[in-house]
Amino acid sequence: MTPQTPHTTVLIIPTGIGAAIGGYAGDALPVARALAQVTDRLITHPNVMNGAQMYWPLPNAYYVEGYGLDQFAAGEWGLQPVHQNPIGLVFDQSIEDDLRWRHLQAADAARATLGLDIRAHVMTDRPLKVTLKTTESGASWGTLEHPDSLLRAAERLIIEAGVRAIAIIARFPDDEGSAVLEAYRQGQGVDPLAGAEAVISHLVVRTFQIPCAHAPALAPISLNPNVSPRSAAEEIGYTFLPCVLAGLSRAPQFVMQPSIHQKLLHRNLLHRNLTDATVIQSAQVNAVVVPATAFGGSAAISLAQSADQVIAVGENTTTMAVRAADLGIRATHVETYLEAVGAIAAYRAGVTPSALRPQIQRLPSLPPSPP
User: Cross-referenced Pfam families, in alphabetical order (predicted)?
Assistant: First the structure.
């Protein structure tokens, strides 16, 4: 990092793997807020920033969907900061009328109270039929029976309404009373929805290369006075949409060499390219912060090859078991995110971490050179 180059940090907490911090309803947002104070640019993903009704605007944070983050980390895509994105909404045909109206009211509220540019909404031509699944390790994932219907709806919004970010609202199976949901409400286990949400947003971002995030549509569940604070944000409204709309409104656009299909969809973006000085590149990332057991993801592996600091956080346990050392990655191990904040602050100050400890080893002496 040179004095003229903004310090850039990437915060990764993979979704659907039961992260002790960041595996619930926006409970990693305090981590993002703290890290944003010791870096010039914080790049992270919706799983970190989304808290249903709760959100927090961070002027120097970049809200990047997981597939897009993987492409950015690999150096394939750049990130173009924006002032404001026009947003479109895709509704799953499976959503009941009353539930759809609740989401439309949330969108209207975001237009009226936050001033967001929400252009249009469209319903899929077939029910998406989301199915939730769990791996042997306990991580969540899911499938869509009609992904083609989702893509047709998204394409209509891009072409007919001129949107540059898409919020998807899919009807998810109600599972009130299930052991998995009850564990999640108590701040334990894995978010049963997160893995399927990632599948949905990945599909749209991979196809159209524009920002996208998902808000599941669920019937309201009965009151439980003993819900964990980490899960409480999802208990207080009819929809999880507000945080998604707030995040998408300033999500950076993806920049790459456009295909013929993209030229037809994004005529107004063709002047941008990866060499533009305003585009953020993966080579500019100085620090990447990852749960200590979650280094198996594409973004973490890619960024660890070039970042000045790779920070593994031990306290944030997950269902994964891939550590930096398992992949030959040299990482600074800290126990808490508070220590991670300190590690970045020390690096930026040019202070070696050993100088902040009470005991400093004597300077070693190299043996004399042979005659």
Answer: DUF3326
Neighbours of 277 (CB within 10 A): 4
SS3 content of the chain, % helix, strand, coil (to 5): 35, 20, 50
Q: In the chain, what are the domain boundaries?
A: 8-269
Looking at 304-371, list the stretches that DSSP marks H as alpha helix, in order from N- to C-terminal side. Answer: 337-349
For tokens 């939730």, the residue is 132
pTM: 0.88
Alpha helices in 24-146 (DSSP H): 29-35, 46-49, 66-73, 97-114
Helix (H, G, I), strand (E, B) or coil at 54: strand
C-alpha distances (whole Å) from 312 to each of 5, 141, 255, 299 are 24, 25, 29, 14
CA 136/CA 183 separation, integer angstroms: 17
As a whole number of angstroms, the distance between CA 320 and CA 139 comes to 8
| 129 membership: H or E segment, kind and range | none
Residue 350 has a CB neighbour count (10 Å cut-off) of: 6
DSSP three-state, residue 60: coil
> Is 200 in a helix, a strand, or coil?
helix
Question: For tokens 């971490």, what's the residue?
Answer: 353
C-alpha angle with apex 203: 167 to 99, nearest 5 degrees? 35
Collect all residues with Cβ–Cβ distance below 8 Å to 209 and sequence separation of at least 6: 68, 77, 254, 256, 262, 266
* Cα–Cα distance, 46 to 213 (Å, whole number): 7
Angle between helices 147-160 and 194-208 (to 10 degrees): 50
